[in-house]
């Protein structure tokens, strides 16, 4: 018996504030919870205005640290995703899959691993040898090129991945990215020694996602 491939709609949000992107995610989550079917599965693609976000895997972030980061010109948000503190900003391709895992496999561990494999496959298309590590995300050596932090409730996913393309990496100097001491961050541009805008990475990421999740992408 042939299993039908899940359909996933691709939505391009452009450059958008983190607050606005959260609202869009919440709208799509509600559509899933109000529906008895496997649709609509959606990939939200965007870049953010500078923002530092904190996940749920830590004690409350010190108010003085929050104020210090805001003084740099970035927003600051506490979120319900996994993971610790990270940065999002221009030049970083952010992908928020809002999926019903019942259409794929009802396993959060499987889902996170598939996201990692998607990015590794995409990096290989650029000639970059990326890998996983005991720490979540995708790495090139000891430098993280893509952060992954998700939320999953009733098998509906939100949040997702952030791939550094031609991000201003100095923003990461103000934090310990993802709370991992002794390791750094990198980008497609840094690894390739040339400017790699998000638009160049989008088709490769979508191709890898299609293959890894065995789905059909639908474009607006």
Automatic annotation (TrEMBL):
GO terms for biological process: protein lipoylation. GO terms for molecular function: lipoyl(octanoyl) transferase activity. The record marks 144 as: Lowers pKa of active site Cys. Residues 37-217 form the BPL/LPL catalytic domain. PROSITE patterns: BPL_LPL_CATALYTIC, LIPB. The active site is at 178 (acyl-thioester intermediate). The keyword tRNA processing does not apply. It is found in: Mitochondrion. GO terms for cellular component: mitochondrion. It comes from the Eukaryota. Its EC number is 2.3.1.181. Pathway: Protein modification; protein lipoylation via endogenous pathway; protein N(6)-(lipoyl)lysine from octanoyl-[acyl-carrier-protein]: step 1/2. InterPro entries: aa-tRNA-synth_II/BPL/LPL, BPL_LPL_catalytic, Octanoyltransferase, Octanoyltransferase_CS. It catalyses: octanoyl-[ACP] + L-lysyl-[protein] = N(6)-octanoyl-L-lysyl-[protein] + holo-[ACP] + H(+). It holds the Pfam family LplA-B_cat. Keywords: Acyltransferase, Mitochondrion, Transferase. CDD domains: LipB. It is an enzyme of class 2 (transferase). Belongs to the LipB family. NCBIfam families: lipB, PRK14345.1. Catalyzes the transfer of endogenously produced octanoic acid from octanoyl-acyl-carrier-protein onto the lipoyl domains of lipoate-dependent enzymes. Lipoyl-ACP can also act as a substrate although octanoyl-ACP is likely to be the physiological substrate. HAMAP family: LipB. This is Octanoyl-[acyl-carrier-protein]:protein N-octanoyltransferase LIPT2, mitochondrial.
